[in-house]
Every structure is written in C-alpha cells, then in structure tokens.
Amino acid sequence: MASEERLAQLEHALHELVRDWERFFAGIRKTPPEIERKRMEVRLRVLSEQASSAGHSEQFRLEQIQHRFMTYCQNWERMLRDREEGRTRAGYARKPPTSAPGAAPPKRPVPNETRPATVDETDALFARFVAAKRDLGQAVKLDRETFARQLDSQRKAIEERMGREVRFDVVVEDGKVKLAARRAAKPDPGAKR
Prior knowledge:
The protein is mainly alpha-helical and 193 residues long. The chain folds into two domains: 4-85; 119-183, no CATH class. 55% of the residues lie in helices and 8% in strands. It contains five helices and two strands. The chain has helices at residues 4-26, 34-50, 56-85, 119-135, 144-162, and strands spanning 166-173, 176-183. Strands 1-2 form a two-stranded antiparallel sheet. A hairpin with a 2-residue loop joins strand 1 and strand 2. Helix 1 (4-26) packs antiparallel against helix 2, helix 1 (4-26) packs parallel to helix 3 and helix 2 (34-50) packs antiparallel against helix 3 (56-85). The longest helix has 30 residues, at 56-85. The model is unreliable at 90-97 and 109-116 (pLDDT under 50).
C-alpha cells in the first residue's frame, strides 16, 4: 500500500531529480542523471503495483506523480536530442566562435537599438539566416548582396507603414525560415549619444 509518507518521499525524490537535470543542462553537472532516473522509474513501478489496494486519493496522487515524471522524461529526451544535434530552442544551430584564443568576443547586435543596421549587423543576420536554412536541410537561393537589398527594401516599407524603426531577427516556424520585424525601442531623451 502506498502510504502518504511514501508518496511524499517520492514527490521529494522527483523534485531532486528535476533539479539534477536542470544542473546538467546548465552545465554544472557533467553527466546526465540517468541512474537516478532509472531508480525513480523502478520506485514508481513498485508503488503502482502496490497501490491497487490503496485508497482513491492515494491512487490519484500516485498517478499525478507518474504523469509528471513521464512528462519530464519526454522533455529531457527532447532536450538531450537537441543538445546532441547542436540545436537551440529557436530551431537552428549555434556556431562556436571562430575568433583566435584570447581575442575579444565577437560583437553581437543589440536588439531594439535605435540606429540603422550596419554592415556587420546585416552580415550577422545573413549568417543566422543561412545557418537556419542549412540546419533544416534547405538550399540557400540568394547571395549576401541580394539579401541585403531585400532586407533594406523591407525595412523601409515596414518603417514607413509603422512610423517607427524596426529590427529583424531570424525565426523558424512550421519548418520555414523567416525574418521577423520587431519594433525598435524608442530612444531615451536623457541618454547620452
């Protein structure tokens, strides 16, 4: 029979297992807590076999714990697969920096800045666009210059319509790589330029 105390211990063990996985994905822990996950699986199986004679409230609580555990397992497996494939949540791969050791990190565009896009920003956007297309196995059918011309014409049209500066970002939706326009933040009148 699954007593209240055993169920409380099981919930605590699940909470600790979740924390161990979070530590792993944060890089604090070097190996995934697979052994602990297997132990939790066995504990749940044993308790569910013993719970047939338990009361309805204990059975319900045990089923909730099992459901949460299965949901976490599915998420962990997906996150492990994404990590092994080098994919981020946005849907395309992160590329390691190619700068020399000891060099300053590459300058990244700051979102929502209120200045026109520079050549570096267009290059970075084009690189993310190409990487996203390749990660999806799609061919890149335009060169950097064509991309920049199309981007400038889209930016002008959108800014005229919105009456405000916009910034672009690469997004992956329904297996398609798109450029999403976002409104740039209004400049702070008290800020130094």
